[in-house]
From TrEMBL:
GO terms for biological process: cellular response to phosphate starvation; phosphate ion transport. Keywords: ATP-binding, Cell membrane, Kinase, Membrane, Nucleotide-binding, Phosphate transport, Phosphoprotein, Transferase, Transmembrane, Transmembrane helix, Transport, Two-component regulatory system. This is Phosphate regulon sensor protein PhoR. GO terms for molecular function: ATP binding; phosphoprotein phosphatase activity; phosphorelay sensor kinase activity. The keyword Cell membrane applies. It is found in: Cell inner membrane. Its EC number is 2.7.13.3. It comes from the Bacteria. It is an enzyme of class 2 (transferase). It is a multi-pass membrane protein.
Amino acid sequence: QNGLTLSVQIRPYGDGLRLILTQDVTERLRADAMRRDFVANVSHEIRTPLTVLAGFVETLTNLPLTPVERQRVLALMTQQTNRMQSLVSDLLTLAQLEGSPRPPADHWVPVSALLQQVELEAQALSKGRHQLVFHEPGQPAAAIAGHQSELLSALANLVSNAVRYTPDGGRIEVRWLAGSTTQPGCFEVRDTGIGIAREHLPRITERFYRVDGSRSRETGGTGLGLSIVKHVLQRHGAELEVDSEPGKGSCFRIVVPAVRTRYVQAVPSIGPA
Ligand code: ADP
């Protein structure tokens, strides 16, 4: 009933029988509490930039500003608008991931295509502030069973975090570590950034969990990136692994099981006779 198990017990009672019906509502209470927390978090995340925007609108309306001051206010308003746009876009992505069926297992996404696209995104985000090293995937060529845009968004989220949590001058390395027909393969995103203390690691894929809220927001984070990654990987039968050391850096790995990875030996090209 309502997805909950109803237990029925029949016990002797006086001259007759007593029927006892029990329902364990622990799961439902937990789900209700999570839903309430989520709504409260979303409201808070939207209210903050809205309040700031309202303040700026008032400033623009009531204060005689110089053209330079006006430009500064408009730039700050754009920042807050972008923040809300990213939040809504991440919320929609999460909702779509939760509501859509698992991606078909017979669509093969080449690893090299994912790496090429994510390299362009990393360059655009880093704007030359970091040393970006993208290793060639090598031979035989690997492909992953799944959904190209979802896999790309998972990898891009890890790379964007590496850029945002690595100070200027740091190094970010991305590679595909080939498995075999029986061994899993994996994407590795390694940075020399601020790292994450051990006690935070079990919670970083929770929605809106941030180690340092102000740093995450300042760099354009929504607090939803890793929960999107987690959902995408679950749908692809893959797993997320993290090693990190504060002050030294982090290494995130997307581990793809052998059954969802295919390797194809490149056919040697035939040169001129
Ligand atoms: P956010 O939008 O805040 O980055 P995420 O869900 O992507 O949200 O990540 C959750 C938190 O995990 C971040 O707020 C940050 O504290 C931490 N984190 C994620 N990736 C890294 C990284 N590469 N280096 C250091 N901290 C990270």
